[in-house]
Design a protein that fits this description.
106 residues, mainly beta, N-terminal domain of TfIIb, 3-stranded antiparallel sheet
Length: 106
């Protein structure tokens, strides 16, 4: 992976040169022995349930939380590791009363 010296954004390989995705700066590829691979899809393990259609029902229930929207004190939750392994996981909640969603960083 190579980053732009001007703005710090990630660069991508185009026609043998590295091009900044944000500002368009070009540079020579610093690591010539490896090809860079771009993917359009994520595996299921990398996805976080944040869409309105995500099914929280049937997940564990937390009774030590308070919904900021309606004040109800019970919510479904799921836990995902969203940062590096030495950081605590993030809990994603969905209020059992009104369906409001929020996250909590420990």
């Amino acid at each position: 992976m190579q980053f732009c010296d001007d703005c710090g954004s990630m660069m991508r390989k185009e026609s043998g040169v590295m091009v900044c995705a944000s500002c368009g700066t070009t540079a020579e590829q610093r690591v010539s022995s490896e090809d860079f691979i771009s993917t359009e899809k994520q595996s299921g393990d990398e996805l976080i349930e944040t869409s309105e259609e995500a099914n929280f029902e049937g997940k564990p229930t937390a009774k030590d939380v308070r919904c900021d929207d309606c004040g109800h004190t019970e919510a479904w939750y799921t836990i995902k590791q969203t940062a590096s392994a030495d950081e605590p996981p993030t809990r994603f909640f969905k209020c059992k009363e009104c369906g409001y969603r929020w996250r909590e960083y420990n």
